[in-house]
Each structure stands twice: as C-alpha cells, then as structure tokens.
Specification:
This protein has 435 residues and is of the alpha/beta class. It has two domains: 298 residues, Rossmann fold (3-Layer(aba) Sandwich), CATH 3.40.50; 120 residues, Rhodanese-like domain (Oxidized Rhodanese, domain 1). The chain contains 15 helices and 14 strands. Helix 5 links the parallel strand 1 and strand 2. The longest helix has 18 residues. The chain is elongated and about 80 Å long. The structure holds S-adenosylmethionine. The site of S-adenosylmethionine (SAM) has 25 residues, from helix 2. Its EC number is 2.1.1.137. GO terms for molecular function: arsenite methyltransferase activity. It holds the Pfam family Rhodanese. It is an enzyme of class 2 (transferase).
C-alpha cells in the first residue's frame, strides 16, 4: 500500500511483519499528529458518550481534553476516593486525569503518562485551563514499554483507556509488571481496553492502520488474563462493556483517506465488532501486611512534570559574582543572585541572594519575570549548580527568549554552586550569609 509514502505509518506498512519499533513509531506519529490537529468537538463528544461518559463528565473538563479516543470511562467505576494517588497510562489530552483529579481533591495526586510529546503539551495546556499544577496534577512524557518514572508502591489506583492494545507484545507484559511495581499493596487497576474476540487473521494483525486504530494489537481475554496473573495481580475481572466500536466511524466528519490524521481510530475496511470488543478490566495487587509510608509525590523526578529547558544559562565564576557583590555602585538592575536549593541551607548562602523554590519555579515564572526582568544578570545557584540551578536558569532563559527583546535580562549559572562558593569565601562575611 503506497497511497501516502510521506506518512511514516504508511511507510511502515510496506515493511511487514510489524516489529516492536515499527509499531511504536507508527503509533507515536499517528497520535502526535492527532494531538496537533485536535478533534472535532461534536465527533469527540459522540464517541465519548458512546463509551460511557456523561454530559456532566464532559462539561467538567476542558473540551480539548476529550479527543474521541477513549473506549470506556474508567473513572466512572474506579471508586476513586479523596486523597488517593492515581496514575493514568496513555493519558492523551487528559480526559481521565481531569475527572480523577476532581475525585482525589487537593490532597491527592493524579499523574498522566504518554509517549507523545505533542499529547503531553496538549494535556499540560488543558491542565493550565483548569488551574491544575504539579505535583497535584502532572503530565509526564514516558514510553509505557520502558520503566515507568514512578515510585514503587506509591499509587492507589491505575487507570488506562484504550492504550494497552497499542503496545507491542513485549511492551504489554512490561507495562503490567511495571503497573504492579508502582501500585501500593492493596491497590487496583481499572483498564478500559479493546480485546480480540478470536485469533486475528494475519491481514488484520499486519495492518498498521488497524494497529493504530486499536484493533491489530488487541489480544484475547485468556491471553490478557495470563499477562495479569504473570505480573502478580489477583482478583482479575473482565466485563464486556458492549460499546459499539463502529462509534468511531459513525460520523460524517474527517476523511476516509489513509493519510487523514484528523480522525483516529481510522475508518477500517472490515467489521471491527466481529473481531474485537471493548472491555473493562479490574485487578488488584494483594496486600502485603507491611505498612507502606505515603510518599509526598508518586513521581520519581519532580522536574519530569515540566518541559525540558531548551536554553542553558551562561556560566559565571565565583570570582566575578564576588566582584559584583563588592561593587557598591551595583544595584538590582545590574545583578541578582537566586538560590534555588530546597532547604539544605546549612553552612550559609550567597549574601543577599533571593530564595526561590526550584520545584515550583516553572509555575512561578511569570511572577519571577516581573521581579527580575529589569535585572541584567540573574545568577542561579544550587548546591553544586549541576541540577536545580541550571534547570531553573534554563527555564528563565527560555521565558526571556519567548518574550523577545522586551528585556535585557540574561540567566547565568554560578560555577560550582554554593559548595565552591563556601570553599572559597566561607570565612568572608561580606560574601556569605550564615542564616
Ligand atoms: C487511543 S489514545 C487514548 C488516549 C486517552 N487515554 C483517552 O482516552 O483519550 C492512546 C494514547 O496512548 C498513547 N500511547 C500509545 N502507545 C504508547 C506507549 N507505548 N507509551 C506511551 N504512550 C502510548 C498515545 O500517544 C495516545 O495518547
């Protein structure tokens, strides 16, 4: 098939049989294109209602969060309670993350993982519309066929909606084992997914469009159950939801052409209901009898919840910063020193430095900019200036770059951080504040 050779999924179609890498690339390309194109709101609402979402559900979330890509409504049956930690695997535009966030309230946490950077950007924009921020609500780019960036034994409930079928075979078992690892003992998974009614014929299995369309990667109930049991889950329950998979094609919107990325899953040229069906799957990680301490966040690295900085702050030596501090003609319009360490301030800090918490720095950027936009050199530091310092400095420089030439401010990073500063100037009172 060569109707659109510029589309990676169509190129992939010519390289049969489908390898793990081909599947992942084709799925990523298709859903990233979908995230960029957006969904027709009427079409997306019709699909969502066909798979169990109510008007109330849809009116409680940003419209763009529902992309018409779901095959169930896991939050509807997950019994999510206030204060729980919830993880959504393959979170797309964030539909289930936002519904879960309203259940867990401000003391809980909901994390959405997706491999598509475009989906993650879209979901973060949607979160901003709801004023939802990390660590309470976080969207993190992550490939579900690899180790999840989540703390072990930290999550109460794992959701996933029409995603597991999209993983290649080795990715499916890896994901279920990882789901087991990150769940607290006694925690549960609630997955909406598409299952194969029987062994799929090769022409369906090897059809990339049908893979992207959540059919070719569907496995049979007994295979799914084996994977869950092999991963350690108990109390496994499968419920056929009776949703009509033709709901995705029952719309006169979008195009039937093979290259259309405006509608996914793509219309397929066989009766999908004959071969596949949507199911809801429940399973439990058994209690261990050992009390588990609640972690402050289930996210392994707090900064994964934010975009990677594109810029690097310019290096500045401790000697040059000391000269600025000692020059009494210099004011805040010339320089400012910013301490972004967490709370490890024992031993002192650069005299006159401002304290800004790194973990909320990205969300505070507008306020930080207002404070320092007229400061020529904004010098960041942390312990050794290898982590938080360059990260916050990079975010600030990105923010400045996005503002264009409205400011003369530039981000710098203090070489060696406070460790080198104290080793050089620890005994010089005009340079070090011991408080
Ligand atoms: C059919 S969509 C469902 C999105 C969302 N759960 C919903 O109901 O709207 C599948 C999502 O899973 C993501 N996905 C597919 N394979 C993945 C993988 N291997 N790792 C991470 N995300 C993946 C896609 O990028 C896409 O956003």
């Amino acid at each position: 098939m060569s109707c659109c050779p510029t589309q990676p999924q169509c190129e992939a179609q010519e390289r049969l049989p489908l390898s793990d890498a081909v599947i992942t690339e084709a799925v990523n390309n298709a859903y990233s294109a979908k995230a960029k194109a957006g969904a027709d709101p009427t079409y997306a609402a019709n699909v969502a209602k066909a798979f169990g979402y109510t008007e109330d559900d849809l009116s409680a979330i940003p419209r763009e969060a529902n992309m018409g890509l779901s095959c169930g409504n896991p939050v509807g049956t997950a019994h999510i309670k206030e204060g729980e930690y919830v993880l959504d695997l393959g979170s797309g535009g964030g539909i289930d993350v936002f519904l879960a966030a309203s259940k867990v309230g401000p003391t809980g946490q909901v994390i959405g993982l997706d491999m598509s950077s475009e989906m993650i950007s879209l979901a973060r924009r949607n979160a901003a519309k709801q004023n939802l921020k990390p660590p309470h609500v976080a969207f993190v780019q992550a490939s579900l066929d690899k180790a999840l960036p989540i703390e072990p034994d930290s999550v109460d409930c794992i959701l996933s909606n029409c995603v597991v079928n999209l993983l290649h075979p080795a990715g499916k078992i890896n994901l279920l084992k990882e789901a087991y690892r990150v769940l607290k003992p006694g925690g549960r998974i609630v997955l909406d997914d598409i299952l194969a009614r029987a062994t799929l014929p090769d022409e369906i299995k090897q059809d990339v469009d049908a893979y992207i369309g959540c059919i070719s990667g569907a496995i049979e109930l007994h295979e799914y159950k084996e994977l869950l049991l092999e991963s350690g889950f108990t109390d496994v329950l499968f419920v056929e939801t009776k949703g009509d998979l033709n709901a995705y094609s029952q719309s006169d919107l979008g195009s039937n052409s093979c290259c259309s990325t405006t509608r996914l899953p793509k219309p397929l040229n066989f009766d999908v209901n004959k071969w596949a069906a949507p199911y809801q799957i429940y399973a439990v990680k058994p209690e261990s009898g050992v009390p588990i301490e609640r972690v402050p966040s289930a996210l392994f690295r707090w900064w994964d919840a934010y975009p990677t900085a594109k810029s690097s702050p310019l290096p500045i030596t401790p000697g040059d910063v000391a000269a600025l501090l000692r020059d009494k003609t210099k004011t805040k319009s010339d320089y400012a020193v910013i301490d972004v360490r967490r709370n490890d301030h024992g031993g002192g800090h650069v005299r006159g430095s401002y304290q800004w918490a790194a973990q909320t720095f990205y969300d505070d950027l507008p306020a930080f900019y207002e404070n320092f936009k007229d400061t020529k050199k904004v010098v960041f530091y942390c312990s050794s200036s290898a982590g938080r310092g360059p990260r916050c400095g990079g975010w600030y420089q990105d923010y400045l770059d996005a503002k264009g030439d409205q400011t003369n401010s530039t981000a710098y990073i203090l070489e060696g951080g406070v460790k080198v500063w104290l080793s050089k100037f620890g005994d010089q009172e005009d340079l070090v504040d011991k408080d």
